[in-house]
């Protein structure tokens, strides 16, 4: 898998330690309309440059929303133990200075009809500039567990008893200078991890479905919703981050 980046301009951020929104969306009109997110390569005129990998899993819907009237939903009934992603490349891709902090958040809701016997997980998956290496993952499971996986392959169960059918805010904060990751639920810091990345690529909507053997819930699929997504950069005091603003062509396959 390879990724190419074309930076056509650059701008400076303030040196104060304050967050600057790089991108945010609530998946509303006119940027998004009800229907499937395109598969790679995306059509720039469709769905605000969002696209998905490995099948027509992710759709913009007006059935459930945390804010406004639309969100993104993913439904899968097959391909056990395989992850699925939807993403939009950011101007930061591969060009974030290492002395800065990246923070991404999204609200996630698992369908109340999901079944813990066919475990699923939905949330965020943050990648480095290569688009190959995951910096950190954070997801809500259909058994009510909040699970995090960092960039050094450590797994953390950060909370239990989460309720299906409710919205939860998931946030991953990546600190490049100290190679640390922070995991938060509803703006409450719950855990720390590590990573080895030197740059940032994108923060993906992520879903994985597991199918135990024997399958105790045949025919029951997994469904999740995402809304109010954002990516911000937080410069550390006394530093200047240069952000590339341009066009990105990306391609990757993950299993």
Give a brief rundown of this model.
The protein is mainly beta.
Protein traits:
mainly beta; nine-stranded antiparallel sheet; 255 residues; seven-stranded antiparallel sheet
Explain the layout of strands and helices.
Layout: E1 3-12, E2 20-25, E3 35-36, E4 51-53, E5 58-61, E6 71-76, E7 82-87, E8 100-110, E9 120-127, E10 134-141, E11 146-150, E12 155-159, E13 168-175, E14 180-185, E15 188-194, E16 202-209, E17 222-235, E18 242-250
Antiparallel strand pairs: 1-18, 2-17, 3-5, 4-7, 5-6, 6-17, 7-16, 8-13, 8-17, 9-10, 9-16, 10-11, 11-12, 13-14, 14-15
Helix and strand element order: EEEEEEEEEEEEEEEEEE
Which stretches are low in confidence, meaning pLDDT under 50 for 5 or more residues running? Answer: 1-17, 238-255
Number of strands: 18
Instruction: Sum up the overall morphology in one term.
Output: globular
Percent strand equals over 45%
Structural class: mainly beta
Whole-number average pLDDT?
Answer: 81
Query: Radius of gyration from the CA trace?
Result: 17 Å
| Largest sheet properties | 9 strands, antiparallel
How helical, in percent, are the residues? Answer: under 10%
Number of helices: 0
Give the N-terminus to C-terminus distance in angstroms: 12 Å
């Amino acid at each position: 898998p390879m990724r190419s980046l074309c930076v056509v301009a650059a701008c400076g951020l303030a040196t104060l330690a304050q967050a600057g929104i790089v991108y945010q969306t609530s998946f509303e009109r006119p940027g998004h309309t009800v229907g499937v997110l395109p598969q790679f390569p995306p059509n720039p005129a469709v769905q605000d440059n969002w696209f998905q990998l490995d099948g027509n899993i992710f759709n913009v819907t007006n059935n459930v929303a945390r804010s406004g009237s639309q969100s993104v939903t993913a439904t899968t009934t097959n391909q056990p133990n395989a992850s699925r992603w939807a993403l939009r490349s950011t101007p930061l891709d591969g060009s974030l200075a290492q002395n800065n902090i990246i923070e991404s958040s999204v609200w996630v809701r698992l369908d109340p009809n999901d079944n813990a016997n066919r475990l699923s997980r939905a949330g965020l998956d943050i990648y480095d500039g290569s688009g190959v290496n995951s910096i950190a993952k954070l997801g809500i499971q259909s058994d009510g567990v909040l699970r995090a996986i960092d960039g050094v392959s450590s797994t953390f169960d950060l909370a239990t008893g989460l309720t299906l059918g409710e919205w939860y805010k998931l946030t991953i904060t990546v600190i490049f200078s100290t190679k640390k990751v922070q995991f938060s639920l509803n703006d409450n810091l719950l855990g720390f991890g590590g990573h080895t990345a030197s740059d940032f690529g994108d923060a993906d909507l992520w879903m994985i479905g597991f199918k135990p053997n024997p399958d105790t819930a045949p025919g029951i699929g997994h469904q999740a919703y995402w809304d109010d997504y954002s990516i911000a950069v937080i410069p550390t005091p006394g530093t200047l981050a240069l952000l590339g603003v341009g066009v990105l062509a990306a391609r990757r396959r993950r299993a």
